[in-house]
Description:
By secondary structure, this protein is an all-alpha fold. 76% of the residues lie in helices and 0% in strands. The protein has two domains: 2-62, Homeodomain-like (Arc Repressor Mutant, subunit A); 66-193, Orthogonal Bundle (Tetracycline Repressor, domain 2), CATH 1.10.357. Keywords: DNA-binding, Transcription, Transcription regulation.
Amino acid sequence: MRDQRTSLREVTRDAVRARISATAIDLFAEHGFDEVTVEQVAAEVGISTRSFNRYFPAKEDAVIGDTAAWGEHVREALVARPLDEPVWDSLRHSFLSLLALSDAHDDRQKRAIRVLGSTPSLRARNLEKHLQWEQLLSPVVASRSRGDDAEVRARAIVQSSLACFDVAIATWARRDETRSPAQLVTACFAALRDS
Length: 195
């Protein structure tokens, strides 16, 4: 019985978190990230500022989301890939597995990406994600490499894969783009592999 209550609590918490994030993204897209306060988002949702901060320690987090959990998912997917598979292909599959977690590639997600791209503090937070994910993924990539420069090569490969992922997602977020995020990730990874 206790597990069901915990699970229900988690489901409820996730739903509230999603509602706060959706409201914040809508407000940021309409008025600009820097023009909207946490207090305004909280009021629009019907919660206190303190409650907002329990769900999101910083305003940026309402747009960026839980990058640590997503990075860990990509790392776990990478570790699970066959050892004889080329590392570049393993990274591509790992990023694609992240996209598969959400099949709701909707207008709100596109607006969130556009808000991120137009807001310096969010772009800075995205760079923090890159560093965090590099620390998670580089040791896995390095373990599949040989030679004295395995660590440097691994970091360069991981940063290149992150750039491919970001370009794909930013391209998808354009209003006129019809390809899916997965198609764009595949195209970006292929562009570097084939160059």
